[in-house]
Predict the structure of Histidine kinase.
Amino acid sequence: MKKKYVVSIHILVWIMIWLNDFLPKFIGNTSAAFTFHQPGSVPLIHYALVSLGYLISNIVVFYTIAYVIAPAFLKKQWLRASLFLFLLILFIPVYRFFAEYKVMLPLLGYDNYFGKIPDAYWYIQNSILYTVYSCVTWALIYFVIKEWYHNNKRKRELEKEKIAAELSFLRSQVNPHFLFNAMNDIYSLTLTKSDEAPGAVLKLSELLRYMLREGTGNLAPLEREIDYLSNVVELWQIGEKGSSFVDFKVSGLITNQQIAPLILINFVENAFKHGVTREALNPVHIEIDVDQLGLSFLIFNKKNTNLKDNTGGIGLANVKRRLELIYPDSHDLEISDNADTFTVKLRIEWKR
């Protein structure tokens, strides 16, 4: 909550306390301590000023305890806490005497002791105990609530920072293996002066631009994410010199939807790395279906049993963790790892 709103709430609460203190007394004219009113004086103002005089003392005590003494005790700053507690105990009767005998009695006609002169010890004790009864308990309750609120706020902020740092780290782990292969393939195309070389360079530049710009944010346009995947597929097929078979389909209306960037690439890279891509009858099947509520992603590939390493490595663990952090309650991931096939079904609900 912004500081100006907190200050406004505090001021409003104190005004309400002030009004609640003197208005009922004024309306019922129940304060017998008013011995006289000066000619032309307004009783409402007298009641209001007397109440304000006592309220000022309570305000000073309340905030001194809530913001100075209690925090000092909590931090074990015994000297600071003791010093301010002593000054507060000294302040209460001194202020009370000044307010009652130098302002309220001569200027407002308010005599709290009906012409009597109270015993000094009783007066000091009564002033302190009255103030303690009035606001010290509330000050301590307020301090406890304030500390609880700020501690929880700090925990939430630390958790957000931790999640942001973890997401940044996970994004930095996006497998660069494909990029190196793509650059090598483009280099080979340029050596043979292939007509596909300029288009491949353009696709690689678009791919890198997306990774460096949108790829570092929390969300990116869905259209750009799909374009990125399309470029990855086309670059892979160029590198495989036309002998790679990928069935890439996109359906649904794509407008201004947003998605976590680079959230699908690990599944695609995993299929290319560990799957069979050179059989026309068993293409890598990638399907993206977009609707009003979210996105459905399906990728299916036949396993390449000739590879010694037929696991997903850190890539799948990476994307699982990112999904947990970004879409904790709005995604459903199903991975089917069978003897001959590998299937991923992912459903992401749009953030609202």
Strands lie at 220-221, 246-252, 258-259, 284-290, 294-302, 331-337, 341-349. The first strand starts at residue 220 and ends at 221. The chain has a mean pLDDT of 82. The two ends are 22 Å apart (CA to CA).
